[in-house]
Amino acid sequence: MLSEYLLLSDQMRPGYSASLGSANVASEKEFLQEHKTLPDFFIRLYSEVEGTRAGIEDQSLMDFLPGYRLIHWAELRDCCETCHKILGIDGYYPFLANYSSDFYCWKDGAVYDVSHDCPTPTLIHHSVADFLKTICGCYTSGVYFLDEDGYLDYDFEQERLLAIKLNPQVDYWLEG
Predict the structure, then answer these.
(1) Is 159 helix (H, G, I), strand (E, B) or coil?
(2) How do beta strands 144-146 and 118-125 pair?
(3) How far, in Å, CA of 120 to CA of 115, rounded?
(4) Which of 142, 144, 157, 158 is the most buried (most CB within 10 A)?
(5) Per-residue pLDDT averaged across 160-167, rounded?
(6) DSSP symbol at 90
């Protein structure tokens, strides 16, 4: 489903997938040596793309989803440490970040929202597949759009309604 997401992203923002970089043998070896303890999901993800570095020059290509960038593999250790400081526990692995040090994290196959001002993780998707299905649905249903400056934006209420439909057992979306 990652390839579908990248295709949809490129249709709306040409060049987005290229901005994520592509893993090469040297960077993949370095990544694997640097991050031996990461879950398999991260190994698969970062074997396809490198991620978006903080401070990317073309800000219109920063967002993986509105407000959050895919953490560049070279920044994962620092983001994991920040996430650990917020929560005080291990096991949550951030893969998306915003500039306020809020994260989308993977834990035991599910996706959680971790906010810098709330030390309790919130379940938002039961699986990575559900997460990808939801964000792909946001593209295909028009929930995601480009604002007048060319940045990825979204309709909050329409996202919530779509997410409820695709993730009916997740309280986060029902609470609105």
Answers:
(1) helix
(2) unpaired
(3) 8
(4) 144
(5) 96
(6) S
CATH entry, 2-175, from 1.10.1040.10, 3.90.1170.50, 3.40.1580.10, 3.90.960.10? 3.40.1580.10
Q: Tokens for 149, please give them.
A: 């400056």
pLDDT > 60? residue 23 = yes
Report yes or no: 71 and 79 within 8 Å, Cβ to Cβ.
yes
Q: How confident is the model at residue 122 (pLDDT cuts 50, 70, 90)?
A: very high
**Top-confidence range, 36-40, 87-91, 106-110:** 106-110
Do 64 and 132 form a contact (C-beta atoms < 8 A)?
Answer: no
Q: Which stretch of DSSP H or E encloses residue 125?
A: strand 118-125
Burial of residue 117 (CB within 10 Å: 0-12, 13-18, 19+) is exposed
Count of all residues that appear for the chain in the document:
176
